[in-house]
Known about the structure:
This protein is an alpha/beta fold. It is built from eleven helices and nine strands. The chain has an eight-stranded mixed barrel, surrounded by four helices. Ligand C2E is lined by residues 45, 61-62, 73-75, 78, 94, 118-120, 150, 180-181, 204, 237-240, 257-259, 264.
Amino acid sequence: HAKKSGGNNFQFFTHRLNEIAHERFVLEAELRRALDREEFVLYYQPKVDLSTGRFSGMEALIRWQHPAHGLMLPESFIRIAEESGLLTQISKWIIPTVCRQIQQWQQQGINSVSAAVNLSASFFQHPDFEETIEDSLLQTGIAPECLELELTEATIMSDPQRVLGSMAAMKALGLQLSIDDFGTGYSSLSYLKKLPVDKLKIDQSFIHNIARDADNAAVVRAVISIGRSMQLRVIAEGVENASQLAWLQAEGSEEAQGYYFSRPLPVAKMTALLKQRANFLHNPRGKTQSK
Length: 291
Ligand code: C2E
Ligand code: MG
Ligand code: MG
Ligand code: MG
């Protein structure tokens, strides 16, 4: 009996594996066509300066408007895109698209807007990377300071010497550089000193239960203090409520980002929010909300 059910489990298991492989195969084929079909969209989420309550910038976050599955989040396709080599082409679309968007906002009289893009390790090390950035800046004429690059510790540590070289080149161009998901990786402090970065983004996993979890609170305090001593700005991500915000303000975090202020928004809604010149501390959750 046991043997029989074991056999069934095995059959079920291989069947499920085939299903997963098939789903993945289909998704990859669809991803391959998604760029041509213009199915990718960028959403933008504000970053808030905690000393003024104003926009300090925003982050571009990719979504896939899938014809059958609807709006898909990066967690369900970025990894497949990366593994199948498609993230390079996607990145070559994201960077100029963000630059053109900044240019359009500036043409609408929205001044000094900056936006951050997330960069994968593979694209940061790609031979076309620097040219993509330079061309996008040249073609839109936006100031390099308006473009920020977010790199994770894992990206930096994947090939430290090489990444450091590209980071220096980007810094020389005048871009802003941030370390994303800071605290989740293994970058050593001595290494951090050598990196030409402007900002540390504290990973949202440390923020969620910051008032109750002493270990997380200690990590966040430590990052804020590292930021101070290395003259790096510190931003907390994943701020969802007023008590997290109060805690971060009391501890001296300079910026914050999260659903408490605004979810990532499609361009039209972000434009409306920018035009309101919202003060996020007086009026959290600006007036426009979306998924
Ligand atoms: P990330 O760069 O750390 O982005 C922050 C993620 O946290 C975003 O998820 C954002 O929507 C979400 N978030 C923001 N505020 C809150 C909050 O208050 N609570 C919670 N629970 N979540 C919040 P999203 O858009 O699903 O992106 C996930 C990850 O996918 C990003 O993490 C980034 O690593 C990657 N990603 C997104 N867009 C791109 C892209 O254009 N290129 C690349 N290479 N990666 C991207
Ligand atoms: Mg990011
Ligand atoms: Mg992050
Ligand atoms: Mg993250």
